[in-house]
Design brief:
The protein is α/β, with parallel strands linked by helices. It folds into two domains: 128 residues, type ii restriction endonuclease, domain 1 (Orthogonal Bundle), CATH 1.10.3250; 103 residues, 3-Layer(aba) Sandwich (type ii restriction endonuclease, domain 2). The chain is built from nine helices and five strands. A five-stranded mixed beta sheet has the order 1-2-3-4-5. α1 runs antiparallel to α4, α1 packs parallel to α8 and α4 runs antiparallel to α8. The longest helix has 34 residues. The relative contact order is 0.14.
């Protein structure tokens, strides 16, 4: 893949990321989120308007999902495109690179945040399942959890049946280019980002307006003040 093709791929993946963020704004169910929030904390912090509550909810909702979403629609498609690999035939494994004597199975993860014990076991089991299916190939099986940024590098252990590869080393494994990880940031061009952000800001403001109207209708007094007891009854009252 030449540099212009990479620029186009990055721009396309960035567009998909922003489009999916907009879709998430549209899917949010305000009352479902309010059931998981602490109305006592809102009151204790001096919250006085529906707008304050809605903006906090949207910010937390998006920040919780952006990392995983970026990995799914930006990093993962780029990794598949530039590696020359194929989509893996196994659950929990995203792509595979096969040579004459080696089968490298890769699960792509956005960053190096640590897996807990159950996640490590599940990922190890998914690699082990694929390994069993490929025994007839008689090739070295190399399971990799690839992190698209960070420095984490590990070898398989008795607890973890795969190795970790991160950041520069991970992208170099996929592309053979030691500078590829820098190209990713270099080709995230400001003018393309600005165009997407402008469209996103309009949708974000529309979402705030929608959810403020909903909150006001359901949990505010005629005066416009928050009806805290009504909100608490909704959040915590016995059904």
């Amino acid at each position: 893949m030449n540099n212009e093709e990479l620029r186009a791929l990055i721009a396309q993946s960035l567009g998909e990321f922003y489009q999916r963020r907009i879709q998430r704004l549209e899917k949010l169910k305000l009352k479902n989120v309010l059931l998981r929030k602490n109305p006592y904390l809102y009151k204790a912090l001096g919250t006085q308007s529906a707008t304050e509550i809605v903006e906090e909810i949207l910010k937390a909702y998006l920040s919780a999902s952006d990392e995983g979403l970026f990995g799914d629609v930006f990093f993962e498609p780029i990794a598949k495109s530039v590696s020359g690999g194929v989509v893996s035939p196994s659950e929990g494994v995203d792509l595979a690179i096969e040579t004459e004597d080696r089968y490298t199975a890769i699960a792509v993860k956005s960053g190096p945040n640590p897996y807990n014990a159950s996640q490590v076991k599940r990922q190890s089991d998914e690699f082990a399942s694929l390994r069993r299916r490929l025994l007839k190939l008689r090739k070295q099986f190399d399971p990799v959890l690839g992190h698209c940024y960070g420095k984490k590098q590990t070898l398989p252990t008795s607890r973890q049946a795969y190795r970790d590869s991160s950041g520069q080393k991970f992208w170099q494994e996929l592309t053979g280019d030691s500078e590829f990880y820098l190209k990713l940031i270099r080709y995230l061009e400001d003018k393309v980002i600005a165009r997407h952000r402008e469209a996103y800001k309009a949708d974000y403001q529309n979402a705030i307006n929608r959810y403020v109207r909903e909150f006001t209708n359901d949990f505010c007094k005629d005066s416009g003040a928050i009806d805290w007891e009504k909100l608490v009854r909704f959040n915590s009252g016995a059904s």
